Amino acid sequence: MSAATKIQLNVNGANLTVNAPPMKRLLDVLREDLHLTGTKEGCGEGECGSCSIRMNGDLVNSCLVPVLQAANTKIETVEGLACDGVLHPLQQAFLQCGGAQCGICTPGMLMAAKHLLVHNPHPTITEIREGLAGNLCRCTGFMRIFESVLSAATSTTQETHAR
Amino acid sequence: MRGNAAEHELVAPGSLPAVLDLLANSPGQWTPIAGGTELMVAFAAGRLTASRLVSLWGIDELRFTDARPDKLIIGAGTTFGDLRANSIVAADFPLLDKAASWIGSIANQTRATLGGNLVNGSPAADSSPALLVYDAEIELISVRGKRCMPYSEFHTGYKQNAMTADELLYSVHLRRRFANHRQYIRKVGTRRAMAISKVALGATALINDGVIEEIRIAAASLSTYPARLVKTEAALLGHSPCPNLIDIARKGLLAEAQPIDDIRSNAQYRKSVGANLLEEFLRSQHSESAVQ
Description:
Number of helices of chain B: 11
Order of helices and strands of chain B: EHEHEEEHHHHHHEEEEEEEEEHHH
CATH superfamily of the largest domain in chain A: Beta-grasp domain
CATH architecture of the largest domain in chain B: 2-Layer Sandwich
Distance between the termini of chain B: 61 Å
Shape of chain A: globular
Strand content of chain B: 15-25%
Oligomer: heterodimer
Structural class of chain B: alpha+beta
């Protein structure tokens, strides 16, 4: 048996302490302990990308991270994309291009797309496909998602993506 | 039945000596966990049998590459994302670079480590065929010191390996001697990302004056653990990659491969595809020889 342990995280800029068993999945800590339910669970096996977040600037599947391994890291979730009530350009593009339907994959798609644009502000459609290859969608057929990312990339600057 | 976090202990000693001490003081008690891309899947499904886990994530002594004139040493904690970003891997070991790109997706490559892939020992492991055909050596470490062995001797059975209970995989050594080798690797899976191999095949060969002077062939999912096809290699050595040899190669692989039926494919299909991949490699060498 494992007692809950105090673990410090920086989530979307806020320093937080959670009290959780070290093996608890980061996904569950975000959703249950921190009530950040934007991050979704799809497969729970690291295959669908619905739980994608950024940890110290790396894209990870939060369902495969025991929270102890996230101690003292900087976590970015979908809740951190909008700023002062203004949607991130990617969120705006997903709305305009019909990139979201049922919404389960959308937070993970947004985080994977943000990760892509931070490193590659003007990706080709092939690079977008690879950047989102770990994120599955069962509604849109993917084209509208790729178009959303392309639209956001062409309409904004790198500084905006890094926001 | 979902996994219950409270039923598993996880500690992060934070340094290599501290992890090795833990393993030495209670051998067999602790299961190392690196990027969690295998064990956390088992945990979520309630299949994780290990009750005590020790984290290797964030241990810098395991996450390194050391490029020397004659070899590249890769720390076991190096992620596949690290490997894809490494220019020496891309230039000198393109098959490993390619195999790293096969691992899951970017989010998996960020976390999955080379050491984890090898120690997990799946017969379908993406990195194994490349390391086998590059004749990799591996280095194990414990409080007793380090020891090296050919990677081809590491796997001893289905998910079994040559490590003792107090050892960790420390590094992989690749000799930088393949610039003149013909090199081939191809994976056949359900889709390009996030798919475990139905079958994959890698090969390196040194061909001089139309004669195969050196050849290594290794496959994923053609046996119970990652291994070279040494009988098929022996049948090809010293010959020219001509159409007649292709027939010998196909028959050799079909006789030597021992795949299984499972959820991803069946044995007969795996054998057929394996033979086709080997033929593709040899045929490309035959046409290259003809051009030269």
